[in-house]
Amino acid sequence: MSKKFTSKSGKNIILRYVEKGDAGELCRYINELSKEDTFIRFSGETVEIKDEEEYLNKQIELFHNNDSVSIIAVYNNQIIAYSSVDRDFVNKKRSLHTASMGLSVSKEYREDGVGRKLMSSIISEAGKHISGLKLIKLTVFSINTRAKSLYESLGFVECGRMPGGILFHGEYIDEISMYLKV
């Protein structure tokens, strides 16, 4: 899969599946977001290239087994956004119809339509490639109202809240769980 689209600001963006050769650029991307200490699970940690290569190889293997889809947004040969939908194996056979979704966008590309286009694409691709998928779930920081609004506009519904479930910049904030029927 490879799709091109024009962002709100006129940038020509490519959406495509991750490939083995993306490890170095993905490592740069995640370390940039971690340093920013934004609304992702990384908070200042540095990811080593060997760890990113291992992660990427696992994602590609899961894709070939119809258990995951990972898509990147690329502009000027740089990764500017990443999303994955991964089958839930936690409860063995009982939850194989569910998958968890993650999304991140570089700071300078937020509010440019990249996140929406990437999310729409990954939801569609996950529905095609993850066999038996019925529900996509995600979590969002309660203070990340832009992301929550985006998710709701794409059909996600809030289904739970963990009070104080996230430590963010020294403050305990709620973690919101959401789902989408596929």
From TrEMBL:
GO terms for molecular function: acyltransferase activity, transferring groups other than amino-acyl groups. PROSITE patterns: GNAT. Transmembrane segments: none annotated. This is N-acetyltransferase domain-containing protein. It comes from the Bacteria. SUPFAM superfamilies: Acyl-CoA N-acyltransferases (Nat). CDD domains: NAT_SF. InterPro entries: Acyl_CoA_acyltransferase (IPR016181), GNAT_dom (IPR000182). It holds the Pfam family Acetyltransf_1. Residues 13-182 form the N-acetyltransferase domain. It comes from Candidatus Roizmanbacteria bacterium CG11_big_fil_rev_8_21_14_0_20_36_8. Gene3D superfamilies: 3.40.630.30.
